[in-house]
Amino acid sequence: MTFPAAVLSVRNVSKTYPGARALDGVSVRVTRGEMIALIGPSGSGKSTLLRAIAGLVTIDAGDGVIEGFGATVQSRGRLSGSVRDARRRIGFVFQQFNLVGRLSLFTNVALGSLGQIGFWRGLLGRWPSATRDAVMVALTRVGVGDRAGQRANSLSGGQQQRGAIARTLVQGAEVVLADEPVASLDPVSARRVMDILRDLNRNDGLTVLVTLHQVDYALRYCDRVIALKSGRVTYDGPASGLGRDILIDIYGPEFQDAFWEGAPL
Prior knowledge:
With 265 residues, this protein is an alpha/beta fold. It has a single domain, classed as P-loop containing nucleotide triphosphate hydrolases (Rossmann fold). Helices cover 36% and strands 25% of the residues. It has helices at 46-53, 83-89, 105-110, 114-117, 119-123, 129-141, 157-171, 187-204, 215-221, 244-251, 255-258, and strands at residues 6-17, 20-31, 35-39, 65-68, 71-75, 78-79, 90-93, 175-179, 207-211, 224-229, 232-238. The strands form two sheets. It has a six-stranded mixed sheet with strand order 7-8-9-3-10-11, with helices on both faces. Helix 6 (129-141) packs across helix 7 (157-171) and helix 7 (157-171) packs parallel to helix 8 (187-204). The longest helix is centred in the last third of the chain and has 18 residues, at 187-204. It is globular, with a radius of gyration of 19 Å. It starts with 5 loop residues before the first strand and ends in a 7-residue tail after the last helix.
């Protein structure tokens, strides 16, 4: 049997912080076009895994390896010389948006093109016409084209997060890593952001790996779910297989009381 090529490969990766082991021998394989929810209790290692894939944190020394698009991102506790090439193809959406508040939404989104046009040209705001067009197309795509000229810190959280997603489109990302992108949003804004991510996955073929605390969102939007507990993968399979017993094993017996009645379990 021939398996699809992996766009992301994580093999036997561990990460230790002072007094805590965030990842413990994690192995994950992501193929092109998947939309995967990464779930688990707070402190289970979800955010650390996403940041390690993007090369934003280094893994422990040892035999752990992270690859993106067939090239090494990091191994044995060191970033690879090709990490920048991988980063150009991997967009990262942060929980707290990571926009520069005093700059316009347009400029924040245009910053996604720095890897293509050069740092100094972007710093001076000398955006090529192709970049300007791409920014407006991306902002319109996520529904905030009419907010392009506003300062980022004057926008709602949902509008800022949609701007952050637009920035990954201008970047030309083929993979989007979204770290709890709806955790600080109201329910309506959260649904809108998740709808956008699913649309980009289904209609544009973007690969999406999203960490979520909302299990119902994982079940509704993602075909595959990976669960972490104490830094280890405890479930990796279809969302349809994520039953009540498995969720209680992941989150503990209190989960049954916390998850509202009528959820599709």
